[in-house]
């Protein structure tokens, strides 16, 4: 039955295009060759080995290669077995430009707080995340999240530490009210096929089995305006997003442009962005005025479009065809 | 003259309470004074508030004698408590709408909402001495009633930002790609279409195997069968138009 459903979802784009025209459901772009994810097997000053679902791969490190593991770090701080994401130099896919190790994120609504440990509900279709705020990050976390209490929003980027996320960098400025008291969004009277806002990221595999699971490199978006009557389901806990996003279902394709780098891709809707739908924040990365999260990209797609995962967002434009 | 004015208050209060109850019943999300309550109580409070308003409206229109005194007293109490709640809400959350007419009351509580609430409180108090019901007054209405009623409606309209909001919504409804629709509603529209009747003999079952949404279009996929040949019949139904455009397509399974 589940296989049937997956097959039906897979067919939706083809059938939508057949009835509304090809511009309604363009072909999704494949994963770019210059972004690679896997498990670190070995690292030396000049070479990096990675176990990926396609097999063992080796990459060249140069003096210009930068490393991130909770902050800028030296290559010797990385250890075999870590979940590693690489961005290589476009056109020279063996030369590494930047390396991120054990990236993780906790985005959603706080459900419990115990000292420096915060439990975050990340949406009806994802397991809750436990985030631990280390003492050295607590100051900057408190500035952007003044209310670490159940019911308030939380969004932080950090590194994976077993089953928990060590939250190091705040990725939003928390609204001063709990989610249930969010002011009602005024009804939208105007719409357009093109919506401006911000794009964030999530990890569809939560850093697990990136050497064998191809979903670690999944290119897609979790969409904050998934149709409630169909895919979002009876447990749907998404809010009405503050950007006027057209209602879509899983399998649709959208064109996402990173307004900071002007890189774009056509990506399929692969999940519900229930957590993102609560955020009506702005992105300071390239100072765009638009607010509201319009897409939560998979980690691979976010980096492929030129994003820095540690900054958490970029200004984006999302286009839906065939409306 | 004084009795004519009292009669008009009964009608105005009845109309206002009915409109308030109707708009709150349509949009049951907590607004206005309901947000002063704990979260689990907000929605039940909104429903109860709408029921009380509808009950009082019926009482104002049809009760006379002792029952009328009770209903008019309760109406005055309702508006007095409402006025206090609005002042309190304005202090706590200056951006919040009064919620007096459900989702239409989006403008932050200002002098207009407070004056209007005070006016309704005064109107409720003014009806205390009247021996007959609103309905009896309506049956024996005179041209003076009409003049006074029109003047008071004009005053209330000036004090009501909801009118502008209602006009905006009527003129430019929610665009079709943002409009939430129920599956039942879309199935009904599909069944009423010519395309459905044309393709119906091909369907193996009237229940869709998959449904999805793409902006202004809702799609339903059905299993189809003709002899040994199996295929799918897909319908696309436009959202938002009273007479929606419906398209259909017969799709052969992809070759193995």
From TrEMBL, chain B:
<keyword id="KW-0812">Transmembrane</keyword>
<keyword id="KW-1133">Transmembrane helix</keyword>
<protein>
    <recommendedName>
        <fullName>Methylamine utilisation protein MauE domain-containing protein</fullName>
    </recommendedName>
</protein>
<dbReference type="Pfam" id="PF07291">
    <property type="entry name" value="MauE"/>
</dbReference>
<feature type="domain" description="Methylamine utilisation protein MauE">
    <location>
        <begin position="8"/>
        <end position="126"/>
    </location>
</feature>
<feature type="transmembrane region" description="Helical">
    <location>
        <begin position="69"/>
        <end position="87"/>
    </location>
</feature>
<dbReference type="InterPro" id="IPR009908">
    <property type="entry name" value="Methylamine_util_MauE"/>
</dbReference>
<keyword id="KW-0472">Membrane</keyword>
<dbReference type="GO" id="GO:0030416">
    <property type="term" value="P:methylamine metabolic process"/>
</dbReference>
<dbReference type="GO" id="GO:0016020">
    <property type="term" value="C:membrane"/>
</dbReference>
């Amino acid at each position: 039955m589940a296989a049937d459903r997956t097959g039906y979802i897979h067919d939706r784009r083809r059938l939508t295009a057949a009835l509304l025209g090809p511009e309604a459901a363009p072909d999704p772009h494949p994963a770019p060759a210059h972004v690679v994810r896997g498990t670190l097997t070995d690292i030396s000053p000049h070479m990096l080995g990675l176990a990926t679902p396609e097999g063992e791969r080796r990459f060249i490190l140069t003096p210009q290669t930068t490393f991130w593991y909770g902050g800028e770090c030296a290559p010797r701080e990385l250890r075999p077995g870590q979940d590693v994401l690489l961005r290589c130099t476009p056109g020279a896919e063996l030369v590494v430009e930047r390396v991120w190790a054990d990236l993780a994120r906790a985005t959603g609504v706080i459900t419990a707080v115990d000292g420096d440990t915060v439990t975050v509900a990340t949406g009806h279709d994802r397991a809750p995340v436990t985030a631990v705020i280390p003492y050295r990050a607590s100051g900057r976390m408190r500035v952007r999240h003044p209310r670490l209490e159940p019911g308030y929003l939380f969004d932080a980027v950090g590194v994976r530490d077993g089953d928990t996320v060590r939250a190091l960098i705040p990725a939003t400025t928390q609204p001063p009210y709990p989610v249930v008291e969010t002011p009602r969004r005024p009804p939208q009277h105007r719409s357009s096929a093109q919506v401006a806002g911000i794009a964030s990221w999530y990890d569809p595999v939560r850093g697990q089995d990136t050497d064998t699971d191809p979903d670690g490199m999944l290119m897609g978006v979790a969409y904050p305006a998934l149709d409630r009557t169909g895919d979002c389901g009876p447990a749907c806990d998404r809010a009405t997003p503050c950007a006027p996003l057209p209602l879509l279902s899983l399998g649709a394709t959208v064109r996402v442009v990173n307004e900071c780098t002007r890189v774009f891709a056509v990506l399929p809707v692969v999940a519900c962005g229930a957590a993102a739908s609560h955020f009506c924040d702005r992105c300071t990365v390239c100072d765009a005025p638009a607010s509201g999260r319009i897409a939560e990209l998979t980690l691979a797609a976010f980096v492929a479009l030129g994003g820095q995962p540690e900054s958490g967002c970029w200004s984006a434009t999302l286009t839906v065809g065939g409306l | 003259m004084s009795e004519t004015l009292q009669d008009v208050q009964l009608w105005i209060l009845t109309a206002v309470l009915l409109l308030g109850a109707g708009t709150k019943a349509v949009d049951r999300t907590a607004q206005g004074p309901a947000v002063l309550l704990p979260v689990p109580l907000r929605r039940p409070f909104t429903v109860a508030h709408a029921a009380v308003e509808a009950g009082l409206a019926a009482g104002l229109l049809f009760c006379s004698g002792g029952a009328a005194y009770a209903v008019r007293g309760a109406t005055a109490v309702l508006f007095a408590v409402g006025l206090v709640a609005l002042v309190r809400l304005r202090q706590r959350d200056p951006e919040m709408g009064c919620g007096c007419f459900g989702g239409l009351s989006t403008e932050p509580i200002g002098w207009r909402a407070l004056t209007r609430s005070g006016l309704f409180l005064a109107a409720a108090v003014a009806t205390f001495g009247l021996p007959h019901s609103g309905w009896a007054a309506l049956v024996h209405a005179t041209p003076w009633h009409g003049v006074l009623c029109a003047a008071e409606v004009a005053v209330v309209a000036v004090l009501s930002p909801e009118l502008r909001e209602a006009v905006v919504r009527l003129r430019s409804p929610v665009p079709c790609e943002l409009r939430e629709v129920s599956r039942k509603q879309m199935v009904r529209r599909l069944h009423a279409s010519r395309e459905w009747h044309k393709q119906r003999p091909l369907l193996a079952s009237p229940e869709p195997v998959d449904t999805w949404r793409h902006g202004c279009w809702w799609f339903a996929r059905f299993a189809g069968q003709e002899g040994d040949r199996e295929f799918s019949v897909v319908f696309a139904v436009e959202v938002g138009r009273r007479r929606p455009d419906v398209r259909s397509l017969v799709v052969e399974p992809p070759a193995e």
